[in-house]
Amino acid sequence: MAILPIDSGRYGSEEMRRIFTEEARLQRMLDVEAALAKANAELGLIPKEAAQVIAERANVKFVKLERVKEIEASIRHDVMAIVEALSEACGEHGGYVHLGATSYDIVDTATALQLKDALAIIERRLRELCELLCELAVKYKDTVMVGRTHGQHALPITLGFKFAVWSSEVARHLKRLREVEERVLVGKMSGAVGTMASFRGKGLEVQERVMRVLGLKPATITTQVIQRDRHAELICLLAIIASSLDKFATEIRNLQRPEILEVAEGFEAGQVGSSTMPHKQNPIDCENISSLAKLMRSLVVPALENIPLWHERDLTNSANERFLIPEACIIIDEMLRRMTRVLRGLRVYPDNMKRNLELTKGRIMSEAVMIKLTERGMSRQEAHRILRELSLKSISEDLHLAELLKRDLRVTKYLTVEEITEAMKPENYLGEVDKLIDKAVREAREALQS
């Protein structure tokens, strides 16, 4: 019975959700038990035949989820229920299952295995998004539009410039993710308080061999649990990525307003925007991204709260992590998929961009004229004062700024009518946009190659 939208399949890809199913979680814990048995046998701590049987039977084909739940209902210990179920499946060799280990040797290492698979998907999605933004940056490199600050028209930019900024941001997230993987994809096999006493002088070798089998790094030192700063760092990073996606989505939503309409989310032929207003074309994917970002950011608090555990460990992290880690990975997976879909289907309206550039009747080019006047010898402060005065007059009298400039003797003393006309063209005041886009795209693509 599905309760949460994640359970029903509404959010997250099947590929990502599959990693966090009960069966997949059980299998990874069994994988750890099998690796432990193999390491113990190699070091002479258990018979090799026992390790072979444990490895063969450490599979959900033999250790059924239903049986594990049945045992847990009786003994009220989830990991011991797995140990008992696996021991049953191994017959006479079952007594060697879990030898030397504590529960969180299995739990934390299994979590690292899940995260290894999940982060591979997240990295792939980030790479796809980054490459798409690079393509859009190049495609719209020369599409001039209004740059806005404080919600007001500021100076001209290009749509490609906006996408290049985003591509650079996503490239940084890729680098951060790779760095975090170094600290998160680690396992442990260190016993009840982390001293490895139960492995009879061979603890470091056992841990090294277990992690080699599983493809994880061994933690340098732990208590009974892997320290939660590692998981907290990952959740914080996923929240930062979610916030970037929220930023992109919010920008698209704002630019889709009918009074602006410079870009818009795609709208399929049979799609319905409203149950009562047939004309509506709502940016539902972008709104969904912004909504999920709120939830993702909320996960940061419990992740940070899990760092201070009592002494060598307590259980106050356990319950919330059952939600925290799967939710974080599934939510960011959904957000990345949706943002990629939005950008692939994005509708772009260059004519509306040209229209909006003229909304302020040339006032958006006041800085360009001010700079041109300073080049000809006028002081910067005087040029600023004149342009401010004429801009206010342009507003109050509803006149184009160019008209006022061309009949103001303080300006025409320094600039000809032709020079004013050229200075008022948005495409002539784009600064180093081309070079900046090229640099951002080049560096983003280098990040994709590394």
Outline the structure in words.
Helix 7 (103-139) runs antiparallel to helix 20 (433-449). Strand 1 (144-149) and strand 2 (152-158) form a beta hairpin. The strands form three sheets. The protein has a two-stranded antiparallel sheet with strand order 1-2. It folds into three domains: 12-96, Orthogonal Bundle (Fumarase C, Chain B, domain 1); 103-191 and 221-266 and 282-355, Up-down Bundle (Fumarase C, Chain A, domain 2); 363-423, Ribonucleotide Reductase Protein R1, domain 1. The mean pLDDT is 96. The longest helix is centred in the N-terminal third of the chain and has 37 residues, at 103-139. Helix content is 63%, strand content 5%. With 450 residues, it is mainly alpha-helical.
The neighbouring-strand order within the major sheet is: 1-2
- Tell me the CATH architecture of the largest domain: Up-down Bundle
Q: Describe the largest sheet.
A: 2 strands, antiparallel
Instruction: Write down the Rg.
Output: 30 Å
**Shape verdict:** elongated
Beta fraction: under 5%
Annotated CATH topology of the largest domain:
Fumarase C, Chain A, domain 2
Tell me the count of domains: 3
Give a summary of the structure in a few sentences:
With 450 residues, this protein is mostly helical. Helices cover 63% and strands 5% of the residues. It folds into three domains: 12-96, Fumarase C, Chain B, domain 1 (Orthogonal Bundle); 103-191 and 221-266 and 282-355, Fumarase/aspartase (Central domain) (Fumarase C, Chain A, domain 2), CATH 1.20.200; 363-423, Ribonucleotide Reductase Protein R1, domain 1.
